[in-house]
């Protein structure tokens, strides 16, 4: 996907985000997780930044994104990290929602203290 924000916004405007977020489930194959995390990371790129982080939070994928930070594949881990970074650097409400979600906090501890 191009970093061009006009193209990104066109794709998002046609409703691509919700079906993409549905792919972040525990039954997804590795290839789907790689593609979904990379696509979500690309949706977060470009200036001006898209205003969809709230939708991502409301969809409940934040705990799953943190779980993906423990993934053995760098093709899943790195885009997940980029996506998390874009969400937590949003507005104060987005940061607060992220930090107040107990499942996110518990999984985040696992990421921080994972020796692997």
TrEMBL record:
One of its GO terms (biological process) is protein transport. It comes from the Eukaryota. Gene3D superfamilies: Leucine-rich Repeat Variant. Keywords: Protein transport, Repeat, Transport. PANTHER family: IMPORTIN ALPHA. Belongs to the importin alpha family. This is Uncharacterized protein. It comes from Anisodus acutangulus.
